[in-house]
Amino acid sequence: MERRHPEANCEACPLFGNAYVLSNIPPAPKVIVVGEAPGYADAQRGKPFVGPSGKLLTDVLKAHKFRPSEIGFTNACLCRPEGNSSPPKAAQVACRGRLLHEIRQSGASTALALGSTATEVLIDPGGKISTLRIGPAKPALGDVREAGIEGVVASWHPAYCLRNADAFPALLNDVGKLRDSNRSGWKPPRYRVIDDADEAILWLSTLQAEHTVVDIEVGVEKDISFDHPNNYAMLCVGLQMEKGFAYILGEEALNPKKTIEVDGVDQIVSDDDKKGLVWEVFKRFLQRTKIIAHNGKFDLAGLFPHLGGLELFFDTMLAHYALDERVGGQLHGLKVLAVELLGAPKYDDEIQRFVPRGGNYALIPRPILYKYNAYDVSCTWDLFELFQERLDRDGVRRVHDFLVAASNQLMYLELNGIGFDIAYSNALQTDYLTRLDEVDSLVQELTKIPTFNPRSPKQVKEFLHDQGIRVSTTNEDTLKRILERLNPASTAAKFIQALLRSRKETKLYGTYVKGLRKRVYRRRIHTTYLLHGTTSGRLASRNPNLQNIVRDKMIKKQFRVTHEDNIFIQADYKQAEGRVIATLAQDDYLREIFADPDIDMFNELSDSLYGTGNWTKEDRVRTKAFFYGLSYGREAFSIALEYNMTVREAEKRLRDFMDLIPATAKWQEQTKRRVLSGEDLVTPFGRKRRFYLITDENRKDVLNEALSYLPQSTASDICLSALIRLRPMLRGMGWIRLTVHDALVVECPERYRDTVSTLLQESMLEEGRRFTDYVPFAVDLSYGKTYGDL
Fold it and tell me: Less Cβ around it within 10 Å: N or C end of the chain?
């Protein structure tokens, strides 16, 4: 075996014999770009970074004014793995000597690590690229540093950006760090800790400030852990009223103690009188200042048991989301923004040794916790100053203000929660476990293997192989395609049917029965709403996710009114997205249908498509599929697959449907052209959707998302506007328990049923009228004692 490079240990490399691509390093480059391994185009042409991902990288480097003579290109491994997979560890080790030699010979002092493999090879073998790419250049590993590399900027591989276009802005930003890798004008804050109740009372009672940053530290980490605020142990509260100086109200100041004598023995107990006075003067101060926070819904909810309701004025997390609607990871998290935008150090490292991720912050020594709290409020203040100008510059100030208004109301939905029927859930759990046992027994009977586990992909593959069916994956789509070709009476068909049923029942049980029961607090479920959780502008929720709860009535019946004299009222916008589309497209045909409340929309459309009365129930279902597919560009193929039609028949019916609404068809084409020409989509509420990178690979997905964005986001915001308006109006009569996309669920005493119904309907219709007078909005009301009755 002859080595391909004298410094590589090719004898030990599992990739030896595969396509080999030499590095491309000019004399005396400023930066060495290190990827993972050659791609297909690289192998064909014998040069690194010459395929689609290389072209994208070249464009990014040009945008930052790098000349070809300044950049060297190489990979962690020079031989191409099979199937374009990541190179195995053994290959990385075998090629490491070659990589270090080339870096040393180049004389470069900075490296750009693209992708997980390069990041692990140059910076941290156990690190995650999602974390290591944040902030300025990172120190290189010891042997890499000895080879001359002082700093490494990590980023997503361009190939990943081609598949996930929302990652592209990060790559663009990260390459810019190569020009300014040591940027940092940020200064640590000065701060004062007030940890005496008497001092806190005196200080708070005289405090005056127009704006105040507020940040609480409790026993959970607000971005990743969840509990009800009633259970929070208040450890400290950080305040900042001017740049660079923070105040920390310490644990002793917020929870003063006193010594009393009990049976001749001194005991330390809570000084409730003094504690009440501390919180009272604190409340009076916060009521006369404008509160700024990062994810302020959490902070104000945490203060609610002590102070009651407070209004948030500015939220730096929501401001960043208004400026950048992408989601994922901790993109809008305070620590990420502090490092990335302010040049702050990764100041949470100091507390990590005291608590695991998501652990109890009460374990952190107070001096360290107070310092951390001071950094939090100081970074929030700096982001507040930064975002003030950016919101106005980008024209999204009203988006931020709308999100803050929603945050102020959603906080109460989270605090109140929705009732949960534990007795009914116990019975449902028993029912599911019985059904799961039955289907597992059926699978074992069919396989004749008493220990067969239907949740083991390995065992499923082996059994299918015994039946003459070879599969590389056992996902649902694959199993359904196989099932279509099988004789329904065959053992394999019965097995797949039972397996799919088992998976469905297992998922429903795990998520909506067992999972929900873990989240019960005082016989209620408390979800957390995420205003920054989707690119579509719709609300998301988690722990548990109640935005996408299944339509199964038996599962939804677990949610019940909190008192037998109460009732649920669900107010649901009818065809909200369709009415938004009709307005945006100025479609007269849809307008005429929506204008007449006596017209059944889908009967009318079916009459137009098939002839008056010449259609079946199944035809009407397909008509609904065409209509609801408008908002995400649904194509004939998927309709044909779902409704057992030929593709040709589906194409004809889709054309006939679109011929009924030419204005909508024209609007959709205009929307596509705008996106392809590089325009941002802007909703009537001012939200923006930016498509940063459109390629042949993602073009179809981008255009489908573009078609769905405007109607989905707008319809959701109309409903959210109604919630903002309604919740204070219902005070004393009812409580909004849930909001799910285009619907609100209210609980109220039976005696207020008519009054609350009228308020719901009138207010929601008014929000529709505020959006448009082109078509009327309609609201359906339904009633029940459980969510499943609605």
Answer: N
447-490 pLDDT tens trace: 998 888 888 889 988 888 889 898 888 888 888 888 888 898 89
What is the mean pLDDT of the segment spanning 4-33? 93
Question: CATH 3.40.50.1980: does it fit domain 190-416?
Answer: no
Whether residue 99 contacts residue 39, with contact meaning beta carbons closer than 8 Å, is answered with no
The pTM of the full predicted model, rounded to 2 decimals, is 0.91
CA distances from 413 to 71, 329, 399, 696 (A): 54, 25, 21, 43
Q: What is the mean pLDDT of the chain?
A: 92
Cα separation values, 20 from 23, 72, 301, 326, Å: 10, 17, 59, 38
How far apart, in whole angstroms, are the C-alpha atoms of residue 131 and residue 188? 22
**Segment (H or E) for 191:** strand 190-194
The CA dihedral of 153, 156, 162, 165, to the nearest 10 degrees, is: -100
Residue 7 half-sphere exposure, CB side, CA atoms within 13 Å?
Answer: 13
Enumerate the β-bridge partners of residue 312.
Answer: 291
Q: Are strands 151-155 and 110-114 parallel, antiparallel or unpaired?
A: parallel
Distance separating alpha carbons of residues 169 and 666, to the nearest angstrom: 31
- Give domain 10-176's CATH superfamily: Uracil-DNA glycosylase-like domain (3.40.470.10)
Q: DSSP states of 528-566 as a string?
A: EEETTS-TTS--EEESS--SS----HHHHTTBB-SSTTE
Helix boundaries (H) for 514-661: 515-517, 553-556, 576-585, 588-595, 601-610, 617-628, 636-642, 647-660
Is the pLDDT at 222 greater than 60? The verdict is no
Decide if 243 contacts 382 (C-beta within 8 A): yes
Burial code (b: 16+ CB inside 10 Å, e: under 16) for 427-436 equals ebeeebeebb
Q: How far apart (Å, rounded) are the C-alpha atoms in residues 589 and 662?
A: 9
**Other C-beta atoms lying within 10 Å of the C-beta of residue 164:** 13
Half-sphere exposure of 320 (CA within 13 A, CB side): 26
Q: 315-327 pLDDT, tens per residue?
A: 999 999 999 999 9
**For residue range 135-159, what is the model confidence (pLDDT) as tens digits?**
889 999 999 999 999 999 999 999 9
- What's the CA gap between 381 and 212, in Å, rounded? 9
Reply yes or no on whether the pLDDT at 373 is more than 80: yes
Neighbours of 20 (CB within 10 A): 17
Look at the domain 531-587+684-790 and name its fold.
Alpha-Beta Plaits (3.30.70)
Task: Enumerate the domain spans of the chain.
Answer: 10-176, 190-416, 422-510, 531-587+684-790
State what percent of residues in the chain have pLDDT above 70: 97
